[in-house]
Hints:
Helix content is 70%, strand content 2%. The chain is an all-alpha fold. A two-stranded antiparallel ribbon has the order 1-2. Helix 4 (73-97) runs antiparallel to helix 7 (135-159) and helix 11 crosses helix 13 (231-242).
Amino acid sequence: MSTAVERFDERARARVGEHARTVVHEDELLRHPAYTRVLHWSVAAFFILALLSGFAVYTPWLYRGLTPIFGGGPTTRLLHPWFSLGFVVCFAFQTLNWLQPMSWTGDDRRWLRRVRDYVANTEKREPEYVDFFNAGQKIYFWAIVGSAVVFLISGIPMWFPKTFGRPTVYVGYVLHDVAALVMLVGFIVHIYEGTAAVPGTLHSMTRGTVEKRWAWTHHPAWYRRASGRDARADYEAAVQRQAGQPPGKEEQPRP
């Protein structure tokens, strides 16, 4: 991340932090500061508004059900590009905020080679090299970045059809729909992964914290950096305590 971006991000975090307080309990770690959470929920709100208003003007069978939410058909058509622009702007700030932790590394290629084990949930905890985000989260993030760029560029001719002409607008419709579908599918997967698939993740985006056992289970490398402790040793100690054995009494099998 460039120095200018780092300085901007630090100032933004500090300003938002002045108006918000994150309580971190003894058995927790700070996962997402207030600035990150504000951006995340702003992105989510604008995306849902853009999605619903887009469906309303795109599909006749949803027109009557959705347009009254926004004050009628003409108002919905007027608001949709502004909702979309709000989504793109907020997500651009989130991209700057997560540029460094979302950067691709050699460990991410290692993670992809075991993606089947992750999907099948055959292992009790992630490998030691998984940091703040795993490769799957990074792929999702950059897919949304690319889709958001296409979404914005294709939406401009649709917003000003007289300026760009019909051929450009028609191409824009196709690209706009493809980008929206990619983001919609990603949104659904994101909700599932953040709730049912990995319990505790949603808490990190509402309260900003996660339990230490969540951290050493899903992001061992980040846990090691954030706490200064060994993720595997703490995991094995927790397993022994749960089994009623003194820590270090018996070596636990590698999960």
